[in-house]
Description:
Blueprint (H helix, E strand, L loop, with lengths): L4 E7 L4 E5 L4 H8 L17 E4 L2 E3 L4 E3 L9 H10 L6 E3 L9 E4 L9 E2 L9 E2 L4 E7 L11 H13 L5 E2 L1 H13 L3 E7 L3 E7 L6 E7 L3 E8 L5 E8 L9 H10 L3 H24 L6 E8 L1 H7 L20 E5 L12 E4 L9 H10 L8 E5 L4 E6 L4 E6 L20 E7 L6 E5 L11 H4 L7 E2 L1 H13 L20 E4 L2 E8 L4 E4 L1 H25 L6 E5 H6 L2 H7 L10 E5 L1 H11 L1 H13 L1 E2 L8 H8 L10 H6 L6 E5 L5 E5 L5
Parallel strand pairs: 1-7, 11-13, 14-17, 17-19, 20-29, 22-31, 23-25, 29-30
Antiparallel strand pairs: 1-2, 3-6, 3-7, 4-5, 8-9, 10-12, 12-13, 14-15, 15-16, 18-19, 20-21, 21-22, 23-24, 26-27, 27-28, 32-33
Amino acid sequence: MSEQEALVVFTPSGRRGRFPVGTPLLQAARALGVDIDSVCGGRGLCGRCQVTVCEGEFSKHGIASSADSLTPSAENEQQFIRRRGPLKPGRRLSCSSQLLDNCVIDVPAESQVHRQIVRKRAEVFDIELDPIVRLYYVEVQQPDMHLPTSDLRRLKDALDFEWRLKELWSDIRVVQEVQGALRSGDWKVTAAIYDDQRIIAVWPGFQSRIFGMAVDIGSTTIAAHLCNLQSGEVVASSGRMNPQIRFGEDLMSRVSYIMMKPGGDEEMTRAVRQALNDMAFELANEAGIDLTEIIEVTFVGNPIMHHLLLGVNPIELGGAPFALATGESVSGLWATEIDLFIHPNARIYVLPCIAGHVGADTAAIILSETPYLNEELTLLVDVGTNAEIVLGNRERLLACSSPTGPAFEGAQISCGQRAANGAIERVRIDPETLEPRFKVIGSDLWSNEEGFAEETKAWGITGICGSGIIEVMAEMYLAGIITQDGIVDGGLAARSERIVADGRTWSYVLDHNEERTLSITQNDVRAIQLAKAALYAGIRLLMDKLGVDSVERIGLAGAFGSHIDVKYAMVLGMIPDCPLENVRSVGNAASTGARIALLNKKARHEIEDQVQQVEKIETAVEARFQEHFINAMAIPHKTDAFPHLRGRFTLPEPRFIERDDDGSRRRRRRKRVA
């Protein structure tokens, strides 16, 4: 080895090379293609290029490495420490450190440009941080009478010279701000570059951070996450009811409102955009940032929410053939084009829709859960007022929607309500005494435990939410209170005062107090049967199309899917038979997909390609939907055997109740389905 050269080995990449003594470490890394982040161009301002000097003998590489292998801390590194605090032990700024001798340099994950953001669920891929908007700090030459070039031209030249960003272009909004930014920043500015092609913002001086929002606009709720585009970290989250609910509980009622009232679509568009502005303000305030630091937003939502956000009248989605105005992704919009007041030149990306009632939210779930990468046959279900269903694997992927209605969310249920303190969310019924016990939101105690009344006194027991509805129906079935056909058995009134007459039918009293009685009525049971039958029928149609009788994995998405107990969903017959250990909640996968698209530009191309491959099934025109629907009205099902479920639970003997001419009832058992 020449005395004037030093060998440097970078980990974890393993890249190595010899460089003249005195070479800046960041320069050596770039020459070797090592993934080290930097915004400031090696000026010691951003601190993103931190590395660790490894100490000791490295026989694998045949060298010894120590802190003395690099030059002592330089002035710009000291200035950074004075501004931002001390570095971690062993850390150095690679832009301020020069090679003196052989060394091994570790590049920590947070210093890598394309770092991995670890997902909580190991079975899906981690997010590779590669946002479409990046920051670049440059020093721009001042104007000169002898070199008559524009300020914008000299900014582009500086970006080319320092960052090799060529053939950049910009819109009028950048032109409007560039001169002020250059002069306020003393000719030092930070530019936000979109997709390595377009200048979209210029800040005076050094701008160290930018943020993006990932938003899921559901028909019931809106969820938004504010992410640091430099680190991928979620710095704030917000959720609120969709204000469009006042125009209709479900999607079709909102379309009906538009049909009946001219300008109704504009009302709904204004309502949702105002909510988004309010949420952006809340998120920025919580994170302690300025709204103008939010430079990009990704959106997902069902087709009607998608159209209303973009100012498109969704009336065509209200009837066959349910034509989308566009199913393609929408990119490059100014935020102000949808009245979103963050950075005035912020960009909007909306994921593609799949079909007339299978929207960008389903595309986001596919992106999050990646069934197209797996061999196992996977079923994904987003349970809501309109259930979206995806079934398949890497060979073939199908999707459809099914009109479940709002019953799962508490609507159409006599004592139903949305999730809030005081709502019953867990239920158990003793099969011998038929006595219930339950938990309510806001308390960890069961209703039969000491201290329950005192702990829940502030809000009381107000109703039953979606997860509680599923559990009480399944428990009523397991306890024999309702039959396989969904009839409340009035004959049990002799055993329990919980079974009470309700006109010509019977109800089950879940809770009684001075203010109100919470009962599960025969009409409640029917509403849940109709909803779960519609969901199951849609799933069975997709299974028919694939020619399969079972699935290997099931993922329940959405806020509802996150809170229901999967075994009760199967007992009730909402989902097909599957090993229970392979059935899980995947959380708000639509929001996760929106966040992936925000943080990784390649993911956008990936989901755009995958959506083109998805086969769309329209349940309304499928001849077997009605047959599947009727069979699925039974609990758990009229004809499907559910062997995995029966291996875990002792299900009641199939029976149904007939009414005699005098109105009395008699029971008749029938053979158990094999």
